[in-house]
Amino acid sequence: MRDPNRLDAFYNELAKVHKEHFPDWRFSQFIINFLAWYRGDPFYLEEGRFLEQVHKYVREITSGG
Length: 65
Prior knowledge:
The protein is mainly alpha-helical. It is built from three helices and no strands. It has helices spanning 6-21, 27-38, 47-63. Helix 1 (6-21) runs parallel beside helix 3 (47-63).
C-alpha cells in the first residue's frame, strides 16, 4: 500500500499552482483544462509525474505557446 501521507505534498503543490497561476479558475476548470491539454490517460500517472505535467502545462500556457 502506498503511503497516504504522500498526498499532502501533492495536494499542497497542486493548490499552490492553482493559486499562483489560475486563481480565477474553478478547481474543475483548472483540472479539465489541464486534462484537455495533456491529451493522455492520467490514470497511471504517479503524483510526481502528474505534477511534472502540470508544471509543463503552466509553462506552456503562461508563456503563450
